[in-house]
Specification:
With 232 residues, this protein is an alpha/beta fold. The chain has helices at residues 2-13, 34-38, 53-58, 78-88, 92-108, 125-131, 135-147, 169-176, 204-214; strands at 67-72, 117-120, 150-151, 155-157, 180-182, 192-200, 220-228.
């Protein structure tokens, strides 16, 4: 009870603000105000998951069925600002809230009970220690909560990699082509997996992860990202 009073007092003195517009949040709002949520560049990839430009990027690279993104990435737009907050401003909870929002959208459109596990793209241990959390995992946890399934770490990043920013398509593939390996292989076999990352540009990272997962013979592999665009 004392904690509740202290939290209420802090909310009056230091009210939580929207991560985008910095307006004070109402108690029913979390990380983002309703106005900013309504203005997010939400895509319709969940309506055409097997026939879109994201799927085309992966053709010939990895075995994948559905490919989706919550937000359309645009430089200096809402999606880039959100990714910056999540990756560099210690906003792990923001990634989880966005995962919840997307999960509820997917659930509304018939995606409940589609996947056995939601699998985040892993960070290397060194980067995880520096950041303190894996933003893709936080997004995946939100998705799993909304879809009433389980987020499961079934991949390991063996080697640290350079940033993918400013690399060509070929350079991005070479940078991650042999970086990932699977763990808990028995939980991969014959299960339907949703592979999740924070952002997709060329699809090299997701393709490399999908190849590793596919070696353990899952029933299917689909992909979802927080944001996707032509460059990041």
């Amino acid at each position: 009870m004392r904690f509740k009073y202290w939290r209420d007092f802090l909310s009056l003195v230091l009210p939580e603000t929207c991560c985008l517009c910095k307006r004070s949040l109402f108690p029913f709002e979390d990380q983002l105000c309703k106005i900013c949520v309504s203005q997010l560049p939400v895509t319709n990839y969940h309506l055409i998951p097997e026939e879109n430009d994201l799927k085309i990027k992966l053709l010939g690279l990895a075995p994948v069925n559905k490919v989706m993104a919550y937000l359309r990435f645009s430089k200096k737009g809402y999606s880039q600002k959100l990714l910056h907050q999540i990756k560099y401003k210690n906003k792990a909870e923001l990634a989880r809230v966005l995962g919840l929002n997307y999960g509820f959208l997917l659930k509304k459109n018939g995606y409940k009970d589609v996947w056995d596990y939601i699998v985040p793209v892993p960070l290397h241990e060194r980067k995880l220690q520096i950041r303190g959390y894996n933003q893709s995992e936080q997004f995946a946890i939100g998705l799993a909560d909304a879809l009433e399934t389980e987020c499961k770490n079934l991949l390991l990043r063996k080697l640290p990699t350079e940033t993918q920013t400013n690399k060509s398509r070929i350079e991005r593939w070479e940078n991650v082509s042999e970086v990932f390996e699977t763990k808990n292989k028995d939980e991969i076999k014959d299960n339907s997996l949703l592979l999740v990352d924070d952002v997709m540009t060329t699809g090299a990272t997701l393709a490399s992860c999908a190849i590793s997962l596919n070696s353990c013979k899952p029933r299917s592999i689909d992909m979802a990202v927080l944001a996707a665009g032509s460059y990041y």
